[in-house]
Specification:
The complex is a heterodimer. Helices cover 67% and strands 10% of the residues of chain A. By secondary structure, chain A is mainly α. In chain A, helix 2 (14-21) packs across helix 3 and helix 5 (85-98) crosses helix 6. By secondary structure, chain B is of the alpha+beta class. Chain B has 14 helices and four strands. In chain B, strand 3 and strand 4 (179-185) form a beta hairpin. Residues 14-18 and 280-286 of chain B have low confidence and may be disordered. Classes of the chains: A mainly alpha, B alpha+beta.
């Protein structure tokens, strides 16, 4: 749903969503409306009621794609680090060794953190 | 022997009902009425109107039996309580009977208070105060016009119309300070086609046309009055369910076909499967209340499952007149 909104770049109605996803996932319009309502209640979407042409909502995302990624990673990693700190850190270290690209990114952040600690 | 007698007495009261009636002939007549009512309710599963009439008869007999029990208890049983005699054993071992009658006294008084307070509440408060968790908006003129047209076709006064600010599929009709109030969610309007939406509105208006509000008030009062009687806790929800089926049937006659209502309910059933795994929402308080999957628990549910409603609509004869 969020991908569709980011791609569209403008608010979408339930019918717009349904038209976009109907080919891949044959779901009823009522189900699309319910899912969008849940995302709105969870604070991920904002919506505006339009009365012209029959009352309907126009949904838009409250977060950009990057902001959403940050929120998800913060939530997931926050839970993992609080509950399984040593295992999580060990897993990340192993991943660093596997992929040079990950190694480069994590090293960059570690250096930045070290720099911050010296100050 | 006395234990067996009291056990039979206890079972008979719960199963037959009008045991508190002192006169043997009355007792027999009422029992026959009640057994017939239950029989018709079970057998006539194709006619919601007959079924609900039979259930009302059973509730009425139970209610009458309860009032008779109270009268018998006050006139005959109570004065004899203090006398040690051959009836003492009867009183001692018919404890459950006496308790039931006692509870009926409290129940009847409670029913009157509850029924009056419910009516006062409904007629004094506006819709927003009756349902503070739901946000109501002014309905657009197209919706009001559509409701007026369907009301005219149904032969009833059009209700006030409100819009529910929710993306869920929900619609309901209730009584408030302003009279009958129909509320339809934005989610229902934006998800359904015009014919489907009109069929759902016709279902709600059918509750007014079929006088379901008066019947519900009676059934609820009888249930409160007879709360000690287990049968009531099955009859009241069965009556509500029968009226839902009848409202579907009436809606089909108002809009002139069953396809739109079947299509709407099928779409709503799909989203309900999603809702079932989620916390409560406005939809759970409305027309499309998701029924339990457990068959025993469903006996106490006031709403039939959407599967049952769709099946009943598919089996409906289109020759039926209003």
């Amino acid at each position: 749903m969020l991908e569709e909104l980011w791609e569209a770049g403008s608010p979408l109605s339930v019918r717009d969503f349904h038209n976009k996803i109907a080919d891949e996932r044959p779901v009823a319009v009522t189900t699309v409306a319910t899912i969008l309502d849940r995302l709105y209640r969870k604070g991920l979407l904002s919506r505006r009621l339009v009365k012209e042409g029959g009352p309907h909502y126009l949904y838009s995302s409250r977060l950009s794609r990057d902001e959403f990624k940050h929120v998800v990673v913060n939530n997931v990693m926050g839970v993992l680090l609080r509950g399984f700190n040593d295992v999580t850190v060990a897993y990340l270290a192993e991943r660093m060794a596997e992929k040079p690209e990950d190694h480069r990114i994590i090293s960059k952040y570690l250096n930045r953190l070290k720099g911050g600690a010296k100050k | 022997m006395i234990l067996i007698h009291s056990a039979v007495l206890f079972a008979a009261f719960f199963l037959i009902g009008p045991l508190g009636v002192r006169n043997a002939a009355d007792k027999l007549v009422l029992s026959v009425f009640m057994a017939s009512g239950l029989g018709v309710a079970v057998v006539s599963n194709r006619s919601s109107r007959q079924q609900s009439a039979a259930l009302i008869l059973v509730l009425t007999v139970l209610f009458y039996g309860s009032v008779q029990s109270i009268s018998t208890w006050l006139r005959f049983e109570l004065p004899e309580m203090g006398i040690l005699g051959e009836r003492e054993a009867f009183h001692a071992f018919s404890f459950f009977f006496t308790m039931n009658v006692g509870l009926s006294v409290i129940g009847t008084a409670a029913a009157v208070i509850v029924a009056i307070s419910m009516e006062v509440r409904k007629t004094r408060f506006p819709l927003a105060r009756l349902m503070p968790d739901v946000e109501f908006l002014a309905a657009p003129s197209e919706l009001i016009s559509s409701v007026h047209d369907i009301s005219r076709a149904a032969g009833i006064e059009p209700p006030n119309v409100s819009l529910i600010d929710s993306g869920d599929s929900a619609a309901f009709i209730t009584r408030s300070k302003q009279g009958f109030e129909l509320a339809v969610s934005v989610g229902l309007i934006e998800s359904l086609g015009r014919d489907e939406l009109e069929a759902c509105i016709a279902h709600e208006l059918s509750h007014v046309k079929n006088n379901d509000f008066a019947l519900r008030s009676f059934a609820t009062s009888a249930r409160v009055a007879l709360f000690a009687h287990p049968l009531c806790h099955l009859i009241e929800p069965a009556l509500y369910r029968a009226r839902e089926f009848l409202a579907d049937k009436t809606a089909v006659q108002i809009v002139g076909g069953r396809d739109a209502l079947i299509s709407a309910l099928t779409k709503i059933r799909e989203s309900q499967e999603y809702i079932a795994s989620q916390p409560g929402s406005v939809a759970t308080a409305c027309l499309f209340h998701p029924a339990s999957k457990n068959r025993f628990i469903r006996l106490f549910d006031k709403h039939p499952s959407l599967d049952a409603r769709i099946k009943a609509l598919r089996g409906l004869s289109l020759d039926n007149k209003l």
